[in-house]
Write a structure and sequence with these properties.
The protein is an alpha/beta fold. It contains nine helices and 16 strands. The protein folds into two domains: 2-182 and 300-388, Aminopeptidase, CATH 3.40.630.10; 184-297, Alpha-Beta Plaits. The strands form four sheets. Strands 1-2-4-3-5-16-6-15 form an eight-stranded mixed beta sheet, with helices on both faces. Strands 10-12-8-13 form a four-stranded antiparallel beta sheet, covered by helices on one side. It is elongated and about 80 Å long. It binds zinc ion (ZN) (2 copies). One zinc ion (ZN) is lined by residues 104, 106, 139, 164.
């Protein structure tokens, strides 16, 4: 089966590059992936798959029925949205949309999803069960997975596979991570309310700026003293608003931030912990506060058995030299984790680095991918999906 998958992938390579470049030059923002969805749907229909559009707003779902009698259902999820970034790669297939760019590799992910469907639709007589392809919108805004799940795409799904490109892994290599792959990412808003007054008479006012500065400092210090350093938490206050004039004591300050953590228990405890710190600082000075802790996405926790399937698929396909076991997770976030609340799954990293030119991080206006990675991604995904049926 592996050699058949590889042969078809090699034959399809020029078409896959063409698909990826088309997607790259026609990026669409989160929740507006109408042209992308139509294009994806066209490719899937031409492979004979049953396609449903407008699932999860602008998502596409397609099913490939195998010919066996295994009732398990495997989902393959890829994301389709681009970012509000002005591309500066200088590529001849660079974005045609001013201010919008595929700077997170979702054009490659979509191509991997399509390539997997193209290959496995030619080998469906060898598939024991059904594969459901999920082409998700709005990953960058952490909305798309919720929309898709609300439209029941995870019904009856037994396992889910995903992929994300990674610019620090060589192009054509695969990164495998057991356990936590990405962090939980939550949004934090703290509003501290004091009392305004003359800048010369602080004892008659409640200085919200001074209290906010203590809140920020104490949160950072207390994290290091109260959380297990082997279970990381990152709290970043990225925005602060308050005050009206240099000589007027501010009556209100608003702090906005992001909170990242890897362990579900840590993540669960954070809102109360932050609340207790803020309360303990405001209370002695008579300030009031409100805390709005909004859950974003949970941490992606890769399932060990499914991760092992992808690892062995990649090793058989490319040899151990091109499979990297990742020792560290990322504190980035990925809404793939929301599917994992419905079925176990795993996401692998697809190396897209060039050996001989500068590589840029994800979300950078010069981010570019080594297109060797496309065949690697497609074969790894297709073969992992096939191997899924033979594991119990
Ligand atoms: Zn991104
Ligand atoms: Zn991404």
């Amino acid at each position: 089966m592996l050699s058949q998958i590889k042969d078809i992938a090699v034959a399809l390579a020029p078409r896959l590059i063409e698909i990826r470049r088309h997607l790259h030059s026609h990026p669409e923002l989160s929740g507006q992936e109408y042209q992308t969805a139509a294009y994806v749907s066209g490719v899937l229909s031409s492979c004979g798959l049953r396609v449903q559009e407008l699932v999860g707003k602008t998502g596409v779902v397609a099913e490939l029925a195998g010919s066996g009698e295994d009732l398990r259902l495997l989902a393959v999820r890829t994301d389709m949205d681009a970012l509000p970034i002005q591309e500066r790669t200088g590529l001849d297939f660079a974005s045609h949309q001013p201010g919008i760019m595929h700077a997170c590799g979702h054009d490659v992910h979509t191509t991997v999803g399509l390539g997997t469907a193209m290959i496995l639709s030619q080998l469906s007589e060898k598939l024991p069960g059904t594969i459901r392809f999920l082409f998700q919108p709005a990953e960058e805004t952490a909305q798309g997975a919720r929309w898709m799940i609300r439209d029941n795409v995870m019904d009856k799904v037994n396992a889910v596979l995903g992929v994300h490109v990674f610019p620090t892994i060589p192009g054509g290599s695969v990164g495998i991570r057991y356990g936590a792959l990405t962090a939980a990412a939550d949004d934090l808003e703290i509003v501290i309310t004091g009392e305004s007054g003359h800048g010369a008479r602080p004892h008659e006012a409640i200085d919200a700026i001074w209290i906010a500065s203590q809140v920020i400092t104490t949160l950072q210090q207390a994290i290091s003293r109260t959380h297990n350093p082997l279970r990381p938490v990152v709290l970043t206050i990225g925005q602060i608003q308050g005050g009206r004039a240099p000589n007027v004591i501010a009556d209100q300050v608003r702090l906005l931030g992001t909170v990242r953590s890897l362990h579900p228990e840590t993540s669960a405890a954070l809102p109360n912990w932050i609340d207790s710190i803020v309360a303990s600082i405001c209370q002695p000075y008579g300030a009031k506060y409100s805390l709005n802790y909004r859950r974003g996405v949970p941490s992606v926790q890769n399932d060990p058995a499914l991760t092992q399937i992808v690892e062995s698929a990649a090793e058989e396909a490319w040899g151990c030299d091109r499979v990297e076991i990742l020792l560290e997770p990322s504190l980035g976030a990925e809404d793939f984790s929301l599917y994992l609340e419905h079925a176990p799954g795993t996401m692998f990293r697809l190396g897209v680095a060039f050996p001989d030119q500068p590589n840029y991080p994800l979300h950078h206006p010069q981010f570019h991918v080594n297109e060797n990675a496309i065949i690697t991604g497609v074969v790894t995904m297709a073969y992992s999906a096939y191997k899924y049926w033979f594991h119990r």
